[in-house]
């Protein structure tokens, strides 16, 4: 299987599985506990049907949307995800360059493997920095100042990782960052020699935003669950979020909002957006899917802040359904991470090309020429 054989989300996933050692693949692919929420994130889109209109004159379709004051040519952006150089040696460099070609936003994680300074020098597409609230206040201040100095457009505080989710696949495979060889994982790494060669020869693996402050994830092999549970401040509350919002002084979002109550609080503390997200099903298994929660959250705050639907998106029609309910845009991680693992920048560009083509085709089939023409009038919810 080659890149040219990848025509959808599942194809990129299959190619990524061929390219990556098992612990690395399952880190992307896995979720919490029984992975019920992970599956529900995607299956929830199937509970809503599209009702198209015809004879609308749809030669030209405008897919642009405005989020956080920035016009994007796609209503889909690359959500911030950690450790990208584990999946392909170019990591965030590849994803950022691909996002720029489509004039969409690129989210950069606090656990990124390329610095905000380098990313800012590489691309000028809109950029979001995803912030974790550490116990070490000096680290928090330093990370925020670096993102501000690098002129990132949006700060997104992740609020659903107050402790690590129970990612049982990682426990079984022994996944850590940086990777460590064990008897059980040795064969998996040995069977993917190109990954190993690239990992060892394409520049040192590091977490540039953390390495001056903590050993975890830099010189010490640690699981992401342990990182969340030991390094992040579990006393974080709404007052802390409000202070961060004020200190940032620009567009500020909360990533991981799932309730109407919390969405309203986000408005109250000065946020300009929220990501309706359950961290890709990787935290609280048995929780609702973002798409299932979207309508009530949009109804409560959609006229006050930008509401982003994040999680489970595998098709252009999934994006259309979220936009029809009232999301300003959609975002996701696995939708480009499998493509990154499959073929680096070329893989991400192919994935984004396919999402754009699906959106254009499906908008025409819906009888719509711009995002503002999508509405709940074009949806029917299946009775359960």
Structural overview:
The chain is of the alpha/beta class. It has a single domain (3-369), classed as Alpha-Beta Barrel (TIM Barrel), CATH 3.20.20. The chain contains 15 helices and 12 strands. The strands form 3 sheets. Strands 4-11-10-9-8-7-6-5 form an 8-stranded parallel sheet. It has a two-stranded antiparallel ribbon with strand order 1-12. Strand 10, helix 14 (316-325) and strand 11 form a beta-alpha-beta unit. Helix 4 packs parallel to helix 15 and helix 12 (260-268) packs across helix 13 (290-301). The two termini are 39 Å apart. The model has no long low-confidence stretch (mean pLDDT 95).
Architecture blueprint of SSEs:
Layout (H helix, E strand, L loop, with lengths): L8 H11 L2 H8 L6 H8 L4 E3 L14 E3 L2 E3 L3 E3 L13 H10 L4 E4 L6 H7 L4 E5 L5 H13 L4 E5 L9 H6 L9 H8 L2 H9 L22 H8 L6 H11 L2 E7 L2 H9 L4 E4 L13 H12 L4 E5 L5 H10 L3 E4 L1 H33 L12 E3 L3
Parallel strand pairs: 4-11, 5-6, 6-7, 7-8, 8-9, 9-10, 10-11
Antiparallel strand pairs: 1-12, 2-3
